[in-house]
Structures are given as C-alpha cells and as structure tokens.
Amino acid sequence: MSDTSVERAFAILETFERERRPLSMKELADTCRIPASTCHSLVHALLKRAYLYQTGKGKDLYPTRRLYDMGAVILAHDPVLQRLEPAMAALRDATRETVILGKRQKDAIVYLSVMEGPEVIRYSAAPGDLKPLHSTSIGKALLSVMKPQDLRDLLQAQARDRVTDSTITDIEALVANIEQGRKAGCFVTRGENVADVTAVAAPVAINNELFGLAVAGPSHRMDSRSDAVVAALTATRDALVEQGLAGTG
After folding, report:
1. Torsion of the alpha carbons at 235, 192, 163 and 151, rounded to the nearest 10
2. Per-residue pLDDT at 85 exceeds 90
3. In which band, very low, low, confident or very high, does the pLDDT at 57 lie, cut at 50, 70 and 90?
4. Distance CA 223, CA 227 (A)
5. What is the residue-averaged pLDDT of the chain?
6. DSSP string computed for 216-231
7. Phi, psi (5° rounding) for residue 200?
8. What are phi and psi of 133, to 5 degrees?
9. So what's the architecture of 3-69 in CATH?
C-alpha cells in the first residue's frame, strides 16, 4: 500500500471520529476529497478486515469495535506509558491540572499521553496532537539538551511562527529562555502556545530516549500556585529517577 493510500485510509477513519455518525460511500469520498473509485477500494479493504461494517439497508458505514480493542491492547503494552502513567495520574491529582507526556518528532512535539485535570476550566489536548518546539514547555525541555550553537542552528533552520502574542520568536531570546530553564531545572511557557495557558515541563529519559513531562492549566491558576506546581513536577521526576523508572536526560 502506498503512502497516499495509507493517508487516505486514515483520513476515512478520522472522518468518522469527527462526524460521529454512519456515513455513505459518497459522503466519505466527498469529505475526504478522494476519487470515488479509490474510496470504494479503501472501504472494501477496511470492510474485509472488519474495521468497518454496513449499518443497514442504506449501506451506510461505521467503524467496528475492532479499532477500539486493538488500540486498548497496544496502549496497555506501551513500555513508556506503563512506566510513567501511574506517576502522571498522581501528579494530576496533586496539581489538579492537565498532565502531558510528549516526545520530539522531527520539528514538533507529539503528545503521547494527556491526563486532563478535574477542574471545569482546564487545558484540553489529545494524544497525537502535534505542537511547535519553540512555543511549548516540553519543546523547550527537549531542546535544552542541545549544545548552544547546535540549538541556534536548529532554530535558524526551522519556522518560529508567532503562535500567540506572547510567543518568543527571536533566536537569542529563545536560547536565553531555555538556558534559564536549564538552570532552574524546569521550563515554563506563559501564553506562548495557547493564550492564557501556563505550562511547566521537565525532561525525563527512558532507555536513553528523552521525553518531556508537563503540567498545564489556565494562567491565573497556574501562576498563583507556581511554586507548588513546580515542586510537584520536580518531585515526580525525582521519584521516577529514584525508582529507576527514568533518568534526567
């Protein structure tokens, strides 16, 4: 199967996630902007492997539970999440804010796990979300391991879009900000990626791979409790290191 076919197959599945209802073959082709013949072939393959089923006489389509069950099995055996999610849950409960685990993927951060806090007003995100390196606390945490000149070269080569009015886009200002975080042991963004959201992150290493662990929430709440949030985050990181579940990077 070509890369294009894979992308189109995922586009079909993501359409069901977005629409949350059975869809006809024509609706899928139109929504995904796929030629009707190609859509028919992809749907037939998904039907054959029982990822889709026909819901009734109209032959509308909908995903089966196979996707859910397969995802649950995969997640249950993720070696990184098995190590970190109990500590992430405890950190969420201690701070009552959203806790995120992320990893660098090329020039972005991909969220691997998101545990949203219990507050009504909270930072919301989803696993699989891609975020910029330069405007996120996790991005800064993972960039902090680079040598200063290598960091400057990377920032020069990549886009540093102004995501919000508070996004730092100047290279020297970013390098200085990351160095400040390195000295403090944690990395902070205040409205740089999402307006009115503050996040604090620390790097953790598992099997020589670097991840970022972050706490994020509304700025008015995070900033008023910044010392307590930072203390909870660093205590979680230190406990993971002491238990041999992670390193400091």
Report:
1. -70
2. no
3. low
4. 8
5. 90
6. EEEHHHHHHTHHHHHH
7. -130, 135
8. -70, -45
9. Orthogonal Bundle (1.10)
Spatial separation of the C-alpha atoms in residues 47 and 57, rounded to whole Å: 16
Mean pLDDT across 33-39? 90
d(CA 112, CA 70): 17
Instruction: Answer for the pair 221, 215: CB distance below 8 angstroms, yes or no.
Output: no
Residue type for position 16: F
The second-level CATH assignment, the architecture, of 78-242 is 2-Layer Sandwich (3.30)
153-208 pLDDT, tens digit per residue, is: 999 998 899 999 999 999 999 999 999 999 998 999 999 999 999 999 999 988 77
Lookup result for tokens 């902007």: 33
The per-residue pLDDT for range 203-240, each reduced to its tens digit, is: 998 877 899 999 999 999 999 999 999 999 999 998 88
Supply 101's token pair: 């685990």
Give the CA count within 13 Å in the CB-facing half-sphere of 171. 12
Check if 3-69 and 78-242 are the same fold. Answer: no
Calpha distance 222→235 (Å, rounded):
17
Question: In the chain, what percentage of residues exceed pLDDT 90?
Answer: 68
CA-to-CA separations, 165 to 192, 208, 213, 231, in angstroms, rounded: 7, 36, 25, 28
- Domain spans of the chain, in order of start: 3-69, 78-242
Whether 7 contacts 34, CB under 8 Å: no
**Tokens representing 190?**
């205040």
Burial group, residue 160, by CB count within 10 angstroms (0-12, 13-18, 19+)? middle
Spatial contact of 63 and 52, defined as CB atoms under 8 Å apart? yes
Neighbours of 127 (CB within 10 A): 14
Residue 75: predicted pLDDT: 76
